[in-house]
Amino acid sequence: MHSDPLPRRHRADRRTFLLASTALTTAACRPESAAAHSIVDCSGKLSLGFSLYGMRDIKTEVAIQTLREIGYDSVEFCLLEGFDTDPARLDRVRRRDLRATLAKYNMCLRALMEHLPLSTDQAINQQAIERLKRAAALGHDLEAGDSPLIETVLGGGNWLEVRDRFAETLRKWAALAEREDVQIAIKPHVHHAVDTPEKARWLMRQVGNERIGLAYDYSHFAAQGIDMNQSVRDLAAYTLFVHAKDAIADGGQTRFALPGSSGKIDYPQLLKRLIENGYAGDFCVEVSSQIWKQPGYDAIAAAKESFRPMADAFHVAGIERPK
Description:
alpha/beta, TIM Barrel, two-stranded antiparallel sheet, 12 helices
């Protein structure tokens, strides 16, 4: 069994220093036109973001401008098929334009969302590997941080039956992440095999590689009655990314809602616990497909409705966001 690796907050401090030093050197050597298209660096600060998973029908350049005007600091691109930022749809010119748009509106690109459930079918798992490679290439093309972050769920199955296979596959992903210079965050999900902090920690210990971490989303734990403070303490050392949304128990089923809309999650407390446990990444609003697939869904209205309670949570928690 692997022991817990060095807490990520200490590694993040070193990465932040190296990134800042590299950025200064690189900017001095770039032509002015290239430097003008560099992505804003949010590293070292907790930023408030919005996932374009909730803006499927809006062109990405428009979404970036709109989110900045609302007040968000950062964005997560969604790479799923049918979305505007599916890597297969983005040629070199479009990638350059997206990078320029992010720079123009001072928006940090903090993560790339994928959906790569594991399978006993090796052909499906190989497709996942190819999608990870395409996501990595896009992240580097867009300058999405020093090591672009790709986040995904792992899918369902009986935990005791699939956990060893999950660990084996994640070790392969770790090797790929080393080669491609990216990080991969897996997300515990209430309806999937990895649904609790204990299971997530077990996987992280088996993999034992800093290239593989967690995407923390308390709504999936809240739906199971898991204590928020304890879940942060259990997972903070492995957490690379955070999603925010509400969860409501509805007749034995879990219904997701916009963050802050139910009053069930103490977001200022959550932010404080994350900071106290060394997290300095993105706090990203995610609109569930349960919401955005509903007739009449308004993506911009959802982004506006989510912003105010989350911005207030930062203020109440006394956390300074990127300028």
